[in-house]
Amino acid sequence: xxxxxxxxxxxxxxxxxxxxxxxxxxxxxxxxxxxxxxxxxxxxxxxxxxxxxxxxxxxxxxxxxxxxxxxxxxxxxxxxxxxxxxxxxxxxxxxxxxxxxxxxxxxxxxxxxxxxxxxxxxxxxxxxxxxxxxxxxxxxxxxxxxxxxxxxxxxxxxxxxxxxxxxxxxxxxxxxxxxxxxx
Length: 183
Hints:
- With 183 residues, the chain is of the alpha/beta class.
- It has helices spanning 13-25, 74-78, 81-92, 104-109, 155-166, 169-178, and strands at 2-7, 29-34, 40-42, 48-50, 53-54, 65-68, 96-100, 117-118, 132-133, 140-143, 146-149.
- A hairpin with a 2-residue loop joins strand 10 and strand 11.
- The chain contains six helices and eleven strands.
- It has a seven-stranded mixed beta sheet, with helices on both faces.
- It is 32% helix and 22% strand.
């Protein structure tokens, strides 16, 4: 099984790599994909990372999940029509999509959240068009093929939720215990 984390300049470092770390600890393959046209991507915190692949040369057909980290770079996702088309194809086929912080706004604008429970960074609720916004009481929620999470502080929760979905509830609980997240 494979998850693709989409990187753009201005992504939130911890939101991306805490999720990636948790997934890899569970034995899930993760590829980081740059949509910037270059493998070097600069996070919102000024950290330069090297993505595994460039968007235009990557084959997504072997991926179970597309993951969108949030942050101020979220607006850059909208600039890539091919990414919007890929997300639409994934959603139409019932494939999994995960987004955190401001990134669920992309799913809202594309109409994927209509009638679904979702959460996001406070202040972005109005961008979750048609969603049933769960607000600050819920850190991470999965409704159908869409998983959303609130922000940096809920990154581990999102990673564990994806482990629960992709591997098992037991694997997620065991991993949470092993990383000292839950006793």
